[in-house]
Amino acid sequence: MKRVVITGMAGITSLGRDWATISKNFAANRSGIRRMDEWNRFEELNTRLAGPIDDFTVPGHWTRKQLRSMGRVSRLAVAAAERALTDAGLLDDPSIRDGSMGVACGSSTGSTEEIKAFGNMLLNSVADGLNANSYVRMMPHTTAANISIFFGLTGRLIPTSSACTSGSQGIGYAYEAIKFGRLPMMLAGGAEELCPTEAMVFDALYATSLKNDTPHLSPRPYDSARDGLVIGEGAGMLVLEELEHALARGATIHAEIVGFGSNADGQHTTRPEESTMRRAMELALADADLSPKAIGYVNGHGTATEQGDIAETLATNKLFGAQMPISSQKSFLGHTLGACGALESWFSIEMMNRDQYVHTLNLDNVDPLCGELDYLRGEPRYLCNDYVMNNNFAFGGVNTSLIFRRWN
Fold this sequence. Notes:
Order of helices and strands: EHEEHHEHHHEHEHEEHEHEHEHHEEEEE
CATH architecture of the largest domain: 3-Layer(aba) Sandwich
Shape: globular
Number of helices: 13
CATH topology of the largest domain: Peroxisomal Thiolase, Chain A, domain 1
CATH class of the largest domain: Alpha Beta
Number of domains: 2
Structural class: alpha/beta
Strand content: 15-25%
Helix content: 25-40%
Low-confidence stretches: none
Number of strands: 16
Strand order of the largest sheet: 5-4-6-8-1-9-16-15-10-11-13
């Protein structure tokens, strides 16, 4: 078995594109959520809240030819991947293009502008707006494919389009590919572009926040006054590398991935199951050969939905006990769906390396139905840990758990 380390990290969020900026916003209790007045035309959509990236533009050196196959979700993913490769010192290294590097990445869906164009064809019998690249921009594996093509990566390609676990499954499957010796390097993560259709998915389930006039007060993961989730957008990418390969080229190592667990509820498409959530965490611990007491912090999924918050915190409590520190960055950024697992893994590593852990914004009063845990509230907290866990859970009953080890 090979050891797997992280040598590059990057992300794009509504609160910034580097850890220095994002963490400063976290510490200042600055939210990336705003009211979306542009959604007023959707009269049956109740929520008006989201966490958009308002200032994203593609890098000036990207060519028109490269952009043709990329919708917004792929552009976010490729931009994050380019920054991660730069961080790893691999962007201009020819070794990544000889089959030694692969891609594991996903999103909840492809770019919805293209879906709209195909829908227009079905509804109105016209093909306006459709061209040879429309499907490529729409297809579920558009992020993974575009990353591979943009950088000329010919290693294995693993699409992980599993809604809210797309990013964490991408990291987990990339870790396993390297661990079992299939190749030495992988780009892994996830992305999501903001679309009102995604808000409507949760609106139809009565699961969106309706605090439309006070966007800074929502979402409220684990809080007794929460009223639902808020959709966000973003992208996060990590460079995973076999340890000896990284050491041989003198790479900077951010952390080691030591455990990954993933399973399915097998019960219901949208109702989370506490027992299988806990089992996913146990699988990650077993993979890392660690006991629960080794974990110093859990980055919770924390969507601010009643069933999700309660199920995950009860599962976490039963495995780790009431002393386990936990928080959710979705309180600042909203639920970035396919990107959240990658972004929250990046945040977990940055927090572990700096001994400064971000709290949950808007968590004033913990819901008494949630599991008893050490909820980080009010301000960041100093903690010194060797291992942290990041958990994500998705529609369809998909559960993931990742464990990262501090690199000394």
